[in-house]
Amino acid sequence: LEHIRALNQRPAVDAILVQLPLPPHIDTDRAIQTIDPTKDVDGLHPINQGKLLLGDPSGFCPCTPAGILALLSHYKIDPQGKHVVIAGRSNIVGKPLAALLMQKRAGCNATVTLIHSASTHIEHLTKEADILIIAIGKRHWLKAPMVKEGAIVIDVGINQDEKPNIVGDVDFDNVAPKCAWITPVPGGVGPMTIAMLMHNTVRSYENRLL
Ligand SMILES: NC(=O)c1ccc[n+]([C@@H]2O[C@H](COP(=O)([O-])OP(=O)(O)OC[C@H]3O[C@@H](n4cnc5c(N)ncnc54)[C@H](OP(=O)(O)O)[C@@H]3O)[C@@H](O)[C@H]2O)c1
């Protein structure tokens, strides 16, 4: 906490990111809440999460949700009116992504369903989706029968198989033939997250010049 407070005070530091998960003896919420919200480029401070929920663009948006919106925008996929099903409700991916995609002010205007470990009839819900975003951390969790023909599938998961190779939450080889668009792992969302981190860092620097 002392180190974070020292970085908050240093004018030459524009961005502070606490790499999660932290060891269990460190209070994650307390560490995040100690970051100066104007340097919180991961967008996890309650001030930035609150602004995101309210649709106030002056805060920092968590990098993975921002990267997914940038991906959709780049490929001219408009979520307006689409049924987006998100699997996973973490503070870093699922929750902020749901808030962004449903928003009027951000111009997304999607209809959003959020799935978590207590959800029932999951296959019924995923099959209804025009856009499926999977962020649960279970390799090859999304199988082909769970996907509607022509759906757009975004795979956030980063898992290791037994080799160990990096694999996503989506059974890519079997799901891809049904999709209009699908993101690969590795590639896809991961590099977008890093790009958005740089974007937020440059924004923080520019804000400090004002
Ligand atoms: N590509 C990137 O840049 C990037 C960025 C962040 C994370 N990730 C990856 O994305 C994955 C998710 O990360 P996270 O931090 O969001 O995960 P997390 O904090 O572990 O949350 C996982 C979520 O998935 C839900 N879930 C778990 N098993 C489920 C099941 N069988 N059915 C339905 N829901 C289930 C959990 O439900 P409950 O809430 O009920 O427990 C929870 O909401 C991980 O593989 C992580 O490495 C990638």
Share of residues in strands: 5-15%
Bound molecules: NADP nicotinamide-adenine-dinucleotide phosphate
Based on secondary structure, the structural category is alpha/beta
Average pLDDT reading = 96
The total count of strands amounts to 7
Helical residue percent? 25-40%
Spatial separation of the terminal alpha carbons:
28 Å
Side-by-side strand order of the widest sheet: 2-1-3-4-7
Largest sheet: 5 strands, parallel
Number of helical elements:
8
Which radius of gyration do the C-alpha atoms yield?
Answer: 18 Å
Overall morphology: globular
User: What sequence of helices (H) and strands (E) makes up the elements?
Assistant: HHHHEHEHEEEEHEH
Keywords for this entry:
7 strands, binds NADP nicotinamide-adenine-dinucleotide phosphate, alpha/beta, single chain, 210 residues
Structure described in brief:
By secondary structure, the protein is α/β, with parallel strands linked by helices. The protein has 8 helices and 7 strands.
3D structure, described in words:
There is one protein chain. This protein is of the alpha/beta class and 210 residues long. Helix content is 36%, strand content 13%. It has eight helices and seven strands; from the N terminus they run H-H-H-H-E-H-E-H-E-E-E-E-H-E-H. The strands form two sheets. The protein has a five-stranded parallel β-sheet. The chain has a two-stranded antiparallel ribbon with strand order 5-6. Strand 1, helix 5 and strand 2 form a beta-alpha-beta unit. The longest helix has 21 residues. The chain starts with a helix and ends with a helix.
